[in-house]
Amino acid sequence: MSTVLAIETSCDETSVAVVRGRQVLSNVVSSQVAVHQPYGGVVPEVASRHHVEIVNWAIAQAMQQADLSWDDIDGVAATVAPGLVGALLVGMTAGKTLAILHQKPFLGVHHLEGHIYASYLSEPSLQPPFLCLLVSGGHTSLIHVKDCGNYETLGQTRDDAAGEAFDKVARLLNLGYPGGPVIDRLAQTGNAAAFPLPEGKVSLPQGGYHPYDSSFSGLKTAVLRLTQSLPPIKATEADVVADIAASFQAAVARALTKRTIACALDYGLTTIAVGGGVAANSGLRDHLQAAAAEQGLRVLFPPLKFCTDNAAMIACAAADHLDQGHQSPITLGVQSRMPISDVMQLYLPQPEPVLLAAHGLSAAG
Ligand code: KG4
Ligand code: ZN
Prior knowledge:
Elements: E1 3-8, E2 13-20, E3 23-31, H1 33-36, H2 44-66, E4 75-81, H3 85-101, E5 106-110, H4 111-122, E6 130-135, E7 140-147, E8 150-156, H5 162-172, H6 179-187, H7 217-229, H8 238-266, E9 271-275, H9 282-295, E10 298-300, H10 304-307, H11 311-323, H12 353-358
Parallel strand pairs: 1-4, 4-5, 6-9, 9-10
Antiparallel strand pairs: 1-2, 2-3, 6-7, 7-8
Helix pairs in contact: 2-3, 4-11, 5-6, 5-7, 5-8, 6-8, 8-9
This protein binds 5'-O-[(R)-(carboxyoxy)(hydroxy)phosphoryl]adenosine (KG4) and zinc ion (ZN).
């Protein structure tokens, strides 16, 4: 069972963790949310600069909290795709430098594979196959998890990601950034049946609707029209905002639940693991849990600290790849986009003696 130090800098969290197999030994997360809040979203160049400032401190903290020496580390990993290119470059460069310096294999990790592995951290006995509902600020996917590195996307969003929809609707309602947590909080006091909102079906050319794909841009527009049709909302009418938040959240939860349950049943997958920041959403948790129970399906929601971006999930994925003998080329680059079905393109079938020798190193364990 491998012990891996991993660095995650794909967006606005600088995170470094040490994981042994599926056991978290340390997980340092420094969020930049406050830095980006005035802009209403993540500013890529600002994110990169903050990663540069924090990453060395986070590496030192993660090693100290894990209480290990470099002799105990079997590999160094970093998120290399998908994400903000400048931000990814910071983590990958730090990871490669550590790998070369300490003569360890380097592993470039796919961010979404990391979100899948978050479920293993909270449920170490979990084994594929299972269905992963991945709902974050950048992605909304239904992924058939077949094995380490073997994934098939069965459904996805055709436009906005679920988290992006939460963020955009929060902006419409002047609730600030990020939108998910604040809408979730407000929705607790609102009436989810107050405003009927569309589910966002995706039409097929041959007629009918795609059973697993979703669309959230129409829902966002419906909320915009709704806010325009209402008299100006004053601070004293916060209950109207809460009703809109609750109605919107329920529409998202209904759409995701319907597709996820249909997909699990059609593919005979009895376990659904949810990942990504929107997995924290209480409306989605309640809806999906209830619908799954009705069908006799098991749903796993990782604890919130593993739902949002963190390096522990990246380290866990890397440790599994390392156990399978996978290692990335030291020449690996970062990519802003990459389908999860291409994960194995990040790894070489064999360790890479030629490239290691070019750096004056030998393949070290
Ligand atoms: O996975 P994540 O931390 O970063 C990405 O890889 O995108 O997800 C961030 C997203 C944001 O859009 C945020 O608004 C959303 O997750 N989010 C939530 C909640 N907490 C975070 N959405 C709905 N309800 C929440 N409680
Ligand atoms: Zn993420």
